[in-house]
Every structure is written in C-alpha cells, then in structure tokens.
Amino acid sequence: MQTQLAPEYRARPDGLEAEAIVRKCVHCGFCTATCPTYQLLGRKTQMHLDRCLTCRNCESTCPSGVQYGHLIDIGRKLVDEKVPRPLGEKALRWALKEGLPSPLFAPAMKVGQAVRGLLPQSLRAKVPAPQQAGAWPTREHARKVLMLAGCVQPAMMPNINTATARVLDAAGIQTVISPQAGCCGAVKFHLNDQEGGKAEMRANIDAWWPLVEAGGVESIVMNASGCGVTVKEYGHILKDDPHYATKAERISALTRDLSELLPALLPELAQKLAGRVQPPDVLFAYHPPCTLQHGQQLRGGVETHLNQLGFKLRVARNESHLCCGSAGTYSVLNPDLSYQLRDRKLGVLGEAFGEQAPDAILSANIGCITHLQSGTATPVRHWVEVLDEALAAP
User: How many helices (H) and strands (E) does the chain have?
Assistant: First the structure.
C-alpha cells in the first residue's frame, strides 16, 4: 500500500512532520492487532481519529518506530480544519477543554460530591466520593523535587498528592509545588485546541523555570502518568517556538514519573517498611496506564519494586497492554466504547490472582482510577497511597 501527502500540506511544517512519520510505516499490520478500538470495531475510518484512544499501544508494537501519537495529533488538526463539527459536539468539547482546567472545577466538584447520591448514574460515575487528603509534610530537606499538582486531581483525589509528598519525605526528599503551574496542557491539546494547550505549557515552564534555572530541584515528578507523558513531550511540541524551545527541552529532560524514583528509594523505604507489610495479607491487581507503559515506555517498575518492598501486586494475565477506556476525555465523548473497554479490563484484572479476587486495584493515573472505580465495588487507588499507608502503620 502506498500513501501520498495531499499537495496542500506539503509546504506546511505539520504536513512535513506527518510525511516523515508515515514514511517509517512498512504496513505490517501489527498496530491493528494491538489497537483496543480496532479490536472492538474491526475497521478504520475517518471517524477513527475521534475514536482513537491515543493509548499508543500501536507505538509499542510497531517494529518501525512509527510515532503514531504525534501523527494523530497532526491528523486531527488537519481534519478539523476541513470537516466542521455539529454544534452540540462543539459545545461539549468546548465545555471539557475550558471546564476541566478551570479554577471553577474544584468548587463545581465539591457541589457534585455534596449531591452525589442524587445524581444520575452517568454523572455519579464522574464524581468520586469526597476524599480526605491528610497532612502535607513540613520537614525541610536538602533534596527537592518539583511536582505538578494537576488540574483535576487536587479536587477529585487530593490524597494522591499529599501521599506522594509524604512518601518522598520519608525518603529524605522535599516536594515543592509552584502555585502558578496549572493544567499540563493535555486536555486542550488533545481536544484540538493545540494553541490553548501550548499556552498552558508555556505557563508551566514560566512557573517552574526560576527553580530549574537556579538548580534548586533535581527533577520534576509526575504522579499522574497522563500529565507525565505530556510534560515529557514539551520539548517536541514547542520545538518551533523560538522563545520556549530550549526551556521546554530542559523541562522535558527533568521530568520523571514517580515510579522512576523508586529504584533509588528502595533501600531507605525497605528499612522503614520492615515488619509492616510482611507477610503480604492484601492482594493488589495492578493496571499500568497506557500513558505509562506505551506513552512513556515504562513497564514493570511499579509492580517489581512494590513486590520487592513486600507488597503483592500482579498485572492481568491477559491483555495487560490494552487500554481501560478512560483516555482523558474519551469516556465522555465515546461512552459506549469506553465502558466496553472498562468492563473488559475489570474482567481480566479480577482474574489476576486466579480464583481469588484481588482486595484492591492499583494504577498510576487519576483518569484510569476514577474510570475503573465507576464499574466495580473493589477499591481502585493510586499505588503511592498504599505505600504511604504502610509507612504510617504502627
């Protein structure tokens, strides 16, 4: 099969980038064999651009290194220029891209949680029960890391951030948050408001740069893998920005998923956890988010290191590489496909320990956590919360 770029795009920077990406493809078909939506639909059409989860499983399986995530961002932009969307669809997308990163999201979430029991099931699934965050550590440490608080996580599940700070504090690392940093930019960028997303990225760089330039932090830590994969790509996304390209590249190079810190922290954490988690009496099924295992190409770290610390984690014995269906705003825009994938994922996670059901499901991204929780009574949590609880145990 041969592909040709339309003449009108051959002189555009994004068209040239798309051309370079496509030329790596050898049409082997491996990508469709691991694409979650292709598994459900069995076809590829123009609508596939909207239905694509951007899970990037195809990137993990592609023998030619085709960067499909970048390609689909370009494709969505070009198609939206040519194909107008219905008014209702436009309104929903606008509400998502403007509402989720907005300062009004937190008070709106509080109202939703207050009346959660009265909400219809479709809305209740998007509103987690109120959560106590616990105390932020107050000790000063010579070692410091920056952390992105995120746009929805502080309102929906604030304990993930405070648990992260407490775990790092136990290992002698101080967590610093810049109040000026906000949404990582992923929501707007992937809803094809790419300029709006870039503006949020530049704002974060401006917020972090004084500490980065002064050498005051050793890394920028992400405890939501969806944010992490985006910040790690700031350098690529802003490569043509003369004022931010160099800074963006530096920010991306400093960014680490929280799990990437675990190997160096193991000795001290193991000492502090001695006697607290042995023998393991709780079984955890672990769902590695697509943004972690495919977007960031980080596999096996969480389960390996937590098992070394005495916990008992297992991934699903089948289909651990497939998406749970959350995918940012995907569960709102494509609920039918999203819930099919969710239920399929919950089924295989429930079988992680054979006939014995897991006591809880762990993950590394707030979107996956809330989405999976909407379909099961089994608790779904961030893995750092479990580690934090063990460190605080008598």
Answer: 23, 8
Q: Hey, what are 35's tokens?
A: 């694409």
Alpha carbon separation from 181 to 110, 121, 137, 146, 348 (Å, rounded): 22, 33, 20, 10, 37
Residue 23's CB: how many other CB atoms inside 10 A?
A: 12
Cβ burial, residue 12 (10 Å; 0-12/13-18/19+)? middle
Tens digits of per-residue pLDDT, 52-70?
A: 888 888 888 888 777 877 7
pLDDT tens digits, one per residue of 276-331: 776 677 899 999 999 999 999 999 999 999 999 999 999 998 899 999 999 889 89
> For residue 142, what are the contacts with CB-CB under 8 A and spacing of at least 6?
none
Determine contact, residues 316/287, Cβ cutoff 8 Å: yes
What would the two tokens of residue 367 be?
């979107």
* CA 331 remoteness from chain centre: 14
Name which of 256, 254, 320 is nearest 286 in CA terms. Answer: 320
Using CA atoms, how far apart are residues 370 and 381, in angstroms rounded to an integer? 9
Q: Which residues contact 105 (CB under 8 A, 6 or more apart)?
A: 99, 151, 152, 155
User: Cβ distance 101 to 187 under 8 Å?
Assistant: yes
**Sheet (strand 255-257) strand order:** 173-176, 143-147, 220-222, 255-257
Return the DSSP state at 283: E
Q: Which residues pair with 255 in a beta bridge?
A: 220
DSSP 189-256: HHTT-HHHHHHHHHHHHHHHHHHHHTT--S-EEESSHHHHHHHTTHHHHTTT-TTTHHHHHHHHHHEE
